[in-house]
Amino acid sequence: MQWTLPPFTLAQPLQFNALLLFGSLLLFGLIAGYIVSKSPWIPRITGYLLVGFVLGGGGLNLLTGDVLHVTSIFADIAVALVVYQLGRYVDLGWLRRERWLLATVAVSAVLCFGFVSLALLWFGTAQAPALLGGIWAIATAPAVVLVVLRDLKAEGQVTRRLATMTALNNFVAILAAYALLPWIAQESGTPLLTLLAHTLYSLFGSLLLAYLTYWLTMPLARLLGRQRSRQFVLVIAVITMAIGVAHALHLPVMLAMLMFAILSKNLDRQYDLMELEFGVANELFMVMLFVTVGASMRVSDLMLVGLPVLILVAARFVAMGCGIFVFARLARMNWRQAGLLTLGTLPMTEVGVGLMQTISSLYPHTTAEVVPLLAGCLIVLELTGPVATQFALINSGESGRE
């Protein structure tokens, strides 16, 4: 879109550019987030999603080309920051005392995979998309949970369990995807040994990248001292570098970040690395993340796969609830807390987007089959999931927001 300036300006044609639209996205996103947050039950990220939807393919179609590329870079950093912050909730010492939480995660993962896969197969979905849908259903959206948790200043039993379960659910989902894809993929001409080698490379490569990132970070944290401003820049720097290495080596970013966070939390015996509040940086990256997610939503996608989407959402909700309620009493939770925890785990989408992008290079045919299902769930769960999570945390009585 461009216009020609008057002759006296001696200028080239005027056109929208990436910086103009990038600044507009931040401005419109913040305004929309402020407006919707006036309701105590709607989180601000819903406003960001709506702005992305209006400006993206579902509306004015302005988020294309350079602008979409820039926002995607910010979205990658946002997801990595979110996963890092959630991974810091995974305290292995606390989990040894709360062993029933680990049982809840394991049983919920198995039930989600089984219920969702069987339900989709029963309703006529092809085998590969059905099994991929089952794997994807294990994960809980980390960005939604973290943003709502921080906005509400929530702290308590339900909050701590929701954050830890979200980190572990994503860890299990990524491991399950890479472990099972070689067996369910239908990539013509690709030997099974090649697919298995790629799986081992991805898993062990991510672990090695996480350890090297930890090995680089801890001496620097000790050298810089316990000053928040310095450590803030340090963490942003090493996370950005790790993302770049993961992209260059085609490794799963989320898995590497989760492992790095868990290592830095549990191996740092001297507490050299501080617990940081990312504040302003979080706000910037989150606007870009959810505007980008919103830009990828199209109503037509939901119309194409309406029934499979509803089946997946319902089957996952039932499976997650069964896993949580079975161990609720053993985990010292009452039925109300178990119900709210189940409701809080409803959002589940940006993990699927990242997972599909990561594995699509080796499994283009298999992942393409699940894209319509992913797109439909994106619309349903990104609009309803944040509201459900905020509702659950407010009603748990653990919200610290006035």
**How far is the first residue's CA from the last residue's CA?**
45 Å
**Pairing-aware structural class of the strands and helices?**
mainly alpha
Strand content: under 5%
Sheet with the most strands, sense and barrel status: 2 strands, antiparallel
The helicity comes to: over 70%
- Major β-sheet strand ordering: 1-2
Sequence stretches where pLDDT stays below 50 over 5 or more residues: none
Q: What is the C-alpha radius of gyration, as a whole number of Å?
A: 21 Å
Principal-axes shape call: globular
| Count of DSSP strands | 2
Instruction: Return the string of H and E elements.
Output: EEHHHHHHHHHHHHHHHHH
Overall pLDDT, averaged? 81
List the topology elements.
Blueprint: E1 2-3, E2 14-15, H1 18-36, H2 45-55, H3 65-87, H4 92-97, H5 99-122, H6 127-136, H7 142-152, H8 157-184, H9 192-224, H10 228-249, H11 253-266, H12 279-295, H13 299-304, H14 306-326, H15 335-344, H16 350-359, H17 364-395
Antiparallel strand pairs: 1-2
Helix pairs in contact: 1-2, 1-3, 1-12, 2-12, 3-10, 3-11, 3-12, 5-6, 5-8, 5-14, 6-8, 6-17, 7-8, 7-17, 8-9, 8-15, 9-10, 9-11, 14-15, 14-17, 15-17, 16-17
